[in-house]
Specification:
CATH superfamily: SGNH hydrolase
Strand content: 5-15%
CATH topology: Rossmann fold
Strand order of the largest sheet: 2-1-3-4-5
Oligomer: single chain
Largest sheet: 5 strands, parallel
Number of helices: 10
CATH class: Alpha Beta
CATH architecture: 3-Layer(aba) Sandwich
Length: 240
């Protein structure tokens, strides 16, 4: 998941680090990360402002990147930072962080019906596919699962607005795979009239000072940049 040719070259020349990224980011799918620690999750109550949780939700369906893996406080993860921006802008929404470390698009698809049943969802932010890419899953299959997530979400909440966050595959998987994987997200956004965040980790991926020791999960400073990336789309859909 790299943001520039320079960053890609740096990663290619560090194959041992790629293996470390695979081990950490893929993790486990039983609600724990790759080291056996509980997955970082944030409840509706934790992310809502003091005004309460009776406002429509912005639901973040995501992986460890959304869950806030490795951070000392869930309030440092980008969904919580988005909540602060919403509050400052006077937008009547509350954020629900449904990120789970190690989850694939199949896991996200398995959870979406239950998540959508928990209360009114005004905006669904879909951050998934990173772990599929690390495992070399077929891009067409990943796209089909994300499309199924969108279909189920719109069945449950027809008026819900969709935001799709783009992701990149590792260059060691080959140029054709990287291209096909990158194309998943803009294609889905076009087909579903959804907002697109072109690359969730733009300005963060490949920059050591903005990532934790594993090289893939953002530090608090990195999370602030991710929040700005996502806020551009959230600001548009909550303005309407």
């Amino acid at each position: 998941m790299l943001s520039s040719p320079k960053a890609r070259v740096r990663m290619i020349t560090r194959p041992l680090r790629i293996l470390a990224l695979l081990a950490v980011a893929c993790g486990r799918q039983d609600g724990k990360d790759g080291q056996g620690a509980p997955a970082a999750r944030v409840s509706t109550q934790d992310t809502a402002s003091a005004a309460g949780t009776d406002r429509p939700a912005i639901l973040f369906l995501g992986t460890s990147l959304t869950a806030g893996y490795g951070l000392s406080d869930p309030a440092l993860a980008y969904p919580a930072l988005i909540q602060a921006k919403l509050d400052s802008a006077g937008r009547p929404f509350h954020v629900v962080n449904a990120g789970v470390s190690g989850e694939s698009s199949a896991g996200a698809l398995a959870r979406i019906d239950w998540l959508m049943s928990q209360g009114p969802v005004a905006v669904l932010v879909i951050e998934t596919g990173a772990n599929d890419g690390l495992r070399g899953q077929d891009p067409d299959s990943v796209r089909a699962r994300i499309q199924a997530i969108i279909d189920r979400a719109r069945h449950a909440a027809p008026a819900a607005r969709i935001v799709i966050t783009g992701m990149e595959a590792m260059p060691n998987l080959g140029a054709d795979y990287v291209r096909r994987f990158r194309d998943i997200y803009p294609a889905l956004a076009r087909a579903n009239h959804a907002e697109l965040v072109p690359f969730l980790l733009a300005g963060v991926a490949g920059i050591d000072s903005l990532n934790q020791a594993d090289g893939i999960h953002p530090t608090p400073a990195g999370q602030r940049i991710v929040a700005e990336n996502v806020w551009n789309a959230i600001e548009r859909v909550t303005r309407r």
